[in-house]
Write a structure and sequence with these properties.
- The chain is of the alpha/beta class.
- The protein has 18 helices and 11 strands.
- The protein folds into 3 domains: 24-166, NAD(P)-binding Rossmann-like Domain (Rossmann fold, 3-Layer(aba) Sandwich), CATH 3.40.50.720; 168-281 and 305-330, no CATH class; 336-407, Rna Polymerase Sigma Factor, Chain: A (Orthogonal Bundle), CATH 1.10.1740.
- Helix 11 (223-231) crosses helix 16.
- The model is unreliable at 1-18 (pLDDT under 50).
- The structure holds magnesium ion (MG).
- Magnesium ion binds next to helix 9.
Length: 407
């Protein structure tokens, strides 16, 4: 288990060297997306605590310029280097404009705390740069651990950097784990909302539509994540993330369906005691937790009105109807390239489903068929992670096309 998870700094201690009472310096990378804009809200609510020194986005010049005008960072970075010139004329005077992956990497190294909310593989170099520089990483980039775990773990072991997860389930586990020692942990229990198709049998799932899959009952997310919630692939990816983040065996990570999304996850300890983290579904809470760690921010995002809460339900997941969960657990256990292949195949399959070229149940079929071609070994560099992803996408695309032709 990661010792960093269980050795929180004393309360009141801030990372970095700006001295007591000084705001903590923060870089928000992926600042224009859903997590990034909510992080801006969190930071603006705590002006004495945080000073944004860097903002970065892949392509959203307009929104990045607007954020720079409000937050006045030292530098902004645009991942797509072709847009750097356009951005330069639109940021406040004196704001440095950096470009490309190198620009994002530089901002990751400059601040004491780095939010990585970059989407996709562009986030992997950001994670590595933050860890290599010994920073605290508030991690909201899935690829860092799903596809890039062998590379990230090697850096994490040696760099002195630390990770505080932003994903609501992992943030909950991080909080629960603070109440016991690694040796006392019996199992991690991840909660899943169950998505819009909870309770349906495999047969009843044969003809579900794109619109039905996009209607998530509790969380507002992009189409990929929403479909992943409907298949439980999202939960499967989170099981892999939990294993990588906390170093707990797959045999001791469980999933329970909890439709209200109020219990965000739980840890059972060796004495039979279960510690859970509860809050209303509001991503600003885990974002603030990760940015403020080890302190809690005095801003009650997600506080519960117990009188209005009603009931909390729990039930086991149906791995026969929601095969993506089982496929993800298998890929996690296999390790090496398999999680990267799982993720790539799933993205190709979900895109085909959204294009109405593949039925909902075909998503699991495509993932399963693609994983049968997975290469042995494990990626050792970012380039190898990217190559592995590309290979898996090509195989998955061929599987989808074969299905379309009825081969
Ligand atoms: Mg989650």
């Amino acid at each position: 288990m990661d010792p960093g998870t269980h050795a929180p700094a004393p309360r009141g201690a801030r990372p970095g060297g700006e001295g007591p009472g000084q705001p903590c310096t923060v870089s928000l990378l992926g600042s224009t997306g859903s997590i990034g804009t909510q992080a801006v809200d969190v930071v603006l609510a705590q002006p004495d605590r945080f000073r944004v020194v860097g903002l970065g986005a892949q392509r959203s010049v307009d929104r990045l310029a607007e954020q720079a005008a409000v937050l006045r960072p030292e530098a902004v970075a645009i991942g797509d280097a072709r847009l750097a010139r356009e951005l330069t004329g639109r940021v406040p005077p004196g704001t440095e404009v950096l470009a490309g992956t190198d620009g994002l990497r530089e901002l990751a190294a400059r601040a004491e705390v780095v939010l990585n909310a970059v989407v996709g593989f562009a986030g992997l170099p950001v994670t590595l740069a933050a860890l290599q520089a010994g920073r605290r990483l508030a991690l909201a980039n899935k690829q860092s651990f799903i596809a890039g775990a062998p590379v990230v773990q090697a850096v994490r072991r040696t760099s002195g950097g630390s990770i505080v997860p932003v994903d609501s389930e992992h943030c909950a586990l991080h909080q629960c784990l603070r109440t016991g020692s690694p040796a006392e942990v019996a199992r991690l229990v991840l909660t899943a909302s169950g998505g819009p198709f909870r309770g349906r049998s495999l047969d009843e799932l044969a003809a579900v539509s794109v619109d039905e899959a996009l209607a998530h009952p509790t969380w507002q997310m992009g189409p990929q994540n929403t479909v992943d919630s409907s298949t439980l692939m999202n939960k499967g990816l989170e099981v892999i993330e939990a294993h990588e983040l906390f170093g707990v065996d797959y045999d001791r990570i469980e999933v329970v369906v909890h439709p209200q999304s109020v219990v965000h996850s739980m840890v059972e300890f060796c004495d039979g005691s279960t510690v859970a983290q509860l809050s209303l579904p509001d991503m600003r809470l885990p974002i603030g937790y990760a940015l403020g760690h080890p302190d809690r921010l005095p801003h009650p995002f997600g506080a519960i009105d117990w009188a209005a809460l009603g009931r909390l339900d729990f039930e086991p997941p149906d791995r026969r109807a929601f095969r993506c969960l089982a496929l993800a657990e298998e890929a996690g256990r296999a390790g090496g390239h398999a999680p990267a292949w799982l993720n790539a195949a799933n993205e190709v399959a979900v895109e085909a489903f959204l294009d109405k070229r593949l039925p909902w149940r075909g998503i699991a079929d495509v993932v399963e068929a693609t994983l049968q071609h997975c290469e042995p070994g494990a990626p050792a560099t970012v380039d190898e992670v990217v190559a592995s992803d590309r290979h898996a996408r090509a195989v998955a695309t061929a599987v989808v096309e074969e299905r379309e032709r009825g081969v």
